């Protein structure tokens, strides 16, 4: 998404993350998280179960979405419940003369997942090339 669009979403992303922190600290999630711990203690040790919150931006023209925040709580047999964060590191790109920002494992042109761009320099979905159709910035 365009740089200015991403910047408009930053405060909402931060507030969402803080709100989940506040909910957790307030005890409002205790009953749910206690149930999570109870159920996972009845499952095999190799299992973990998470309750996740995501903030996604969907573009109906592209028919896909990208996550800006992925966080939640994980429990498993024999491990303490903990807060986890998905990888939401972002990268700037110059695409068609416009500065864009998107999670670094997504294509800035079509918004589909595209990991390891420097080893796999062409997007499997749209065929755009890094350092050809777009330039990683910064
Ligand atoms: Zn693409």
Describe this structure in words.
The model has no long low-confidence stretch (mean pLDDT 94). The chain is elongated. With 138 residues, the chain is of the alpha+beta class. The chain has two domains: 3-85, no CATH class; 89-138, no CATH class. 25% of the residues lie in helices and 35% in strands. The longest helix has 24 residues, at 3-26. The protein has helices spanning 3-26, 30-40, and strands at residues 48-59, 64-76, 79-85, 90-95, 98-103, 134-137. The strands form two sheets. A three-stranded antiparallel beta sheet has the order 1-2-3. It has a three-stranded antiparallel beta sheet with strand order 5-4-6. Strand 1 (48-59) and strand 2 (64-76) form a beta hairpin. The chain has two helices and six strands; from the N terminus they run H-H-E-E-E-E-E-E. Bound molecules: zinc ion (ZN). Zinc ion is lined by residues 107, 109-110, 112, 114, 123, 125-126, 128.
Q: Secondary-structure blueprint of this entry?
A:
Layout: H1 3-26, H2 30-40, E1 48-59, E2 64-76, E3 79-85, E4 90-95, E5 98-103, E6 134-137
Antiparallel strand pairs: 1-2, 2-3, 4-5, 4-6
Residues 107, 109-110, 112, 114, 123, 125-126, 128 line the site of zinc ion (ZN).
Roughly how much helix do the residues carry, as a percent range?
25-40%
Bound heterogens, unique: zinc ion
Shape: elongated
The biggest beta sheet reads:
3 strands, antiparallel
* Widest β-sheet, arrangement of strands: 1-2-3
**Class per helix and strand makeup:** alpha+beta
SSE order: HHEEEEEE
* N/C terminus separation: 16 Å
Q: Helical element count? A: 2
Task: Give the amount of beta strand, in percent.
Answer: 25-35%
Number of strands: 6
Mean pLDDT, all residues:
94
Measured on Cα atoms, how large is the radius of gyration? 18 Å
Low-confidence stretches: none
Domain unit count:
2
